[in-house]
Amino acid sequence: MEKATENGPNGAHSGRVGPTNPMVTPLLTDQYQFTMFYAYWKAGKHNERAVFDLYFRRNPFGGEYTIFAGLEECIRFISTFKLTEEEIAFVRESLPPSCEDGFFNYLREVDCSDVEVYAVSEGSVVFPKVPLLRVEGPVAVVQLLETPFLNLINYASLVATNAARHRFVAGKEKMLLEFGLRRAQGPDGGIGASKYCYLGGFDATSNVAAGKLFGIPLRGTHSHAFVSSFMSPDEIVDKSLHSSDGSSICEDFVSLVQKWLSKIQWSGSSHGAFGETNQSELAAFTSYALAFPNNFLALVDTYD
């Protein structure tokens, strides 16, 4: 287990990169973490040194291993950990009115400069009941880190493990693309799934935001709406297609497509499979080929 970070002194957060999701703040925790914080402070125990281990009890999906993920986001979180005046005011409102003013003054000083994190490397294969991450520091502060660390690690490890299982089944040679954004658990679930699928072994994502944030290769198909937007090849105006090396040009690619379709239909080898080719579908594929001559693909299940 390696030491993951040493935070700088209070106020030395300039230049540090915070969590990817701006919703990951010191308030992304359970209410009882703040009530315990106050009780520690009231008892004069808040600066006592404490050690917490983060682990899990069972592998997901009934499997035999887990891929550890989410460490980077945890480090980003503690490196810029600081409650704002607005956040402190909200904590004051959420706690009983009997809480002393001195506690809220103290919250203005709280950061993670005395916190040390030791962890296995992100992306490692890990197992139940073995500590993934150890947090050392003032008990009240590290108590506040419990919930966000679990939140940042559990989902990330779940997705990365699932991706690794897909990669294992598919083998090394298959290309795996992640297209889950439209079905994900909200924007953060979508961004996180794209990141940790890539970490778990996928090759690319359809998620443009994840591509920008994390440098993940982007891939895309086209939709059924694109296919069904065409009625016939007559709609295609620009029919010319350059060869991949630019040395020649086909002036009427649409006619060339129809010519090859006729050859296939009458070859006898297709056993009539192309006898009822949908011309509007063919027009969409032809148009896509003209738009992306070096990156052609065809979504073939719009009509059948």
UniProtKB/TrEMBL annotation:
This is Nicotinate phosphoribosyltransferase. Pathway: Cofactor biosynthesis; NAD(+) biosynthesis; nicotinate D-ribonucleotide from nicotinate: step 1/1. Its EC number is 6.3.4.21. InterPro entries: Aldolase_TIM, NAPRTase_N, Nic_PRibTrfase-Fam, Nic_PRibTrfase_pncB, Nicotinate_pribotase-like_C. Signal peptide: none annotated. Residues 1-22 are annotated as: Disordered. The keyword Disulfide bond does not apply. Residues 27-154 form the Nicotinate phosphoribosyltransferase N-terminal domain. Coiled coil: none annotated. GO terms for cellular component: cytosol. One of its GO terms (molecular function) is nicotinate phosphoribosyltransferase activity. Transiently phosphorylated on a His residue during the reaction cycle. Phosphorylation strongly increases the affinity for substrates and increases the rate of nicotinate D-ribonucleotide production. Dephosphorylation regenerates the low-affinity form of the enzyme, leading to product release. One of its GO terms (biological process) is NAD+ biosynthetic process via the salvage pathway. PANTHER family: NICOTINATE PHOSPHORIBOSYLTRANSFERASE. Belongs to the NAPRTase family. The lineage of its organism: Eukaryota, Viridiplantae, Streptophyta, Embryophyta, Tracheophyta. Keywords: Ligase, Phosphoprotein, Pyridine nucleotide biosynthesis, Transferase. It comes from Castanea mollissima (Chinese chestnut).
